[in-house]
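Revision sheet: structure tokens.
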Amino acid sequence: MDMTRTPRIVVLGATGFVGSAVLRELATRPLRIRAVARRPSAVPSGAPADIEVRRADLTEPGELDAAVADADVVVLATLYSAATSTWRIEDGDTAAERVNVGLARDLVGVLSARQGGTPPAVVFTGAASQVGPTRKEVLDGTEPDRPTGEYDRQKLAAERLLLDASAHGVLRGVSLRLPTVFGHGFGPTARDRGIVSAMTRRALAGDPITMWHDGTVRRDLLYLDDLAGAVVAAIDHAESLAGRHWLLGTGEGRPLGQVFEQVAALVAERTGEPPVPVVSVEPPAHAEAGDFSSITIDASAFRSATGWAPRTAFGEALRRTVAHLADTAGRDRDRDGVGGRR
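Predicted:
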């Protein structure tokens, strides 16, 4: 990157759950940022960054080329999923493949056509689940990839396209494999479809929190703001990180039963109602093996390379998430003219 001028950082998927948080973190710096999404991005007020908002459907011809023109860094945080409450996609979903894999393929093609200069850094937000089912409870990034779900296969395919292009000098690719992320995005379209927010919404509606297991399954839960800090750290260290994937996480696997009990208690504090019960239910037909596997992330390699570490205590992060979702639910009820809980 030419540090004699202000770098241009392009965030693709800037209105999404992850992309909006990355935009908010980058905006605190005196950078030139282009925020690209199908909907207008919310720009943080008073930000020292020079932020250009570009509304575009990146699957349309020419839009991606224009979006990344003169970029020194590209953050690829786009994601397609079906219009449901989860990130799952069906096998053979060509619309999902067009976004989750096709945009990575298109980006490689666009950057391959550039003439001269330092190849831009591309930071890709992948998933720790790309590894597929494994007997290891603690993942450190050395595991062979054998994904079984369509979402994980598509994320892995995109990652391989970018890292292969990195090996050929087209770009400097850094893949960050994310654990279970929770929190709240920046703006009305940045909705979290993860398990923590989904169960919080159930509790706010007065419904029981449900688990497909006995509650002892562990997850490494990373707060969204800390993830955004990790993406910025990857940008800062792109030269040394390029060419491989890196796992992100807190290093602590938390039993989901205990997490959901905390959620129920925090929601009760907000509503004044008794905590909703946390119950085990039969898993649905679409459940995958990974839904019943405990996962903790050893992110020591990324921490050593960048100096990054999570900054927010889990209890505080959970409290902020519940408070935001409670406030959002309250505004929605006021807008729709509906009062009280079911």
